[in-house]
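Standup notes
- DV: blocked on the single-chain target, sequence here:
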Amino acid sequence: MLPARTYSVTINREWTAVYEMIWRPEFFPRWALGLTEADLRPDGEGWLADGAEGPIRIRFTPHNDFGVMDHHVDVGSGEEVHVPLRVVQNGDGAEVMLTLFRQPGMDDERFAADIKWINRDLRALKAIVEGSA
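- DV (later): unblocked, structure below
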């Protein structure tokens, strides 16, 4: 089992409206700079992107009624990193939660950098979603 941490952001919009706004893979580059630095390009059943360390392939969970936005990222090694992402109801608003699994061989500095990216990305997502209300 991998060590894991879950981070979240509260968004002042109804949860299904948040999910419908952000579930499409094409929306991720607007806020998930830790995932990709450029637009995603469709590639068969997945997507290609230019990551911080080179090209990456991403598979996203299909649209669903449960607010699940998981994605699997292959950074070129052939092994996929699972990134659980959920939008859930929080009263009249939404909670967006992302779980980060510390990958084998990941040192403390890299793990801390990923945590920083995730929290920055979640704050950006909040600003975008609440700004478009």
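- Follow-up: The beta strands are 4-11, 41-43, 46-51, 54-60, 71-74, 80-83, 85-90, 93-101.
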